[in-house]
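Revision sheet: structure tokens.
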Amino acid sequence: MNDSSWGAPPQAGHWGPPEMGPVQGRPPAGPAYDEADAQQTRPMPIVPEMPHTGTDAADRFDSEAGAALAGGPLFRDEMPQEPMPSPTPQVPQPPQKKRAGRDLRAAIGVGVGLGAVIVASLFVVKAVFVGVIAVAVVVGLWELTSRLQERKEIRAPLVPLAVGGAAMVVAGYARGAEGAWVAMALTALAVLVWRMTEPPEGYLRDVTAGVFAAFYVPFLATFVSMMLTADDGAQRVLTFLLLTVVSDTGAYAVGWRFGKHKLAPRISPGKTREGLLGAVSFAMAAGALCMEFLIDGGSWWQGLLLGLAVAASATLGDLGESMIKRDLGIKDMGTLLPGHGGIMDRLDSLLPTAPVVWLLLVLFVGSG
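Predicted:
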């Protein structure tokens, strides 16, 4: 808009002031001025002068005045907003009952069945029980090596591990600790040689995993077969099994009902300090009873110490396998046992507990 529009005569309905030119009611002199153009030019409205308070204030006033002239609200905060819907009243929900993470019916059924097989073989023929240990070791090795290959592409040789693991269990029963160590050394050597038949890439990684698997599963299991060689070997193995199961049951029951403080959240979020106290209490009570009534020459106070040691070793063994499974990114080592997972998921607390029980029983009552 040019400055000449400020001198236009008033139109019908015009709301601006009549004096717009240099002389009231007359157009300014000059050939450039055209009265027809002046009649068609819309006059600029007068905006009241406001005290100048700075560039920001003037700009803010202009934008607000323009909004007011356009029929809108003067300030942004005055923009009409949609009415908020009234909140729906929340119906209080009944507290949810805690649920176990596994199928308890299947777990109990499988556990009772395995227990019956173990006890029957243990008290009927000792050699049959040694065979049960060997089968469990071979299946555990198969699960462990399979998960290593699937998740980490680690090819630990299964054939020498399975043959050497079964031989290790038999050697521990037949020749004691010396036989177990010799079988362990030969198994490690067999792993090194067997892996040489494949390309050298990943050789060190694969044989390291193989030696670890040989120590972790069959070598620790040989202490169970060595317990069996004593005169009261069946009672010693039964004590070992009962204390481990009671420790796990106490940890589960107390932790599920009262657990609030995490024991090792980065390794196993489900384990609590209250559960550990339950494991210790249950295992110590069971240890006192077992040493008093099952072990020849045992006493209740030895059972208290034995139960405490079993609770500690079983918990550490469970955490150790949880560490392995977290590294592999899996929940269970297998699916062979409904409600339990795989064989290794049941051996996790038994394997590291076996040498502890064997050693303490030898110290307390001798090798038998």
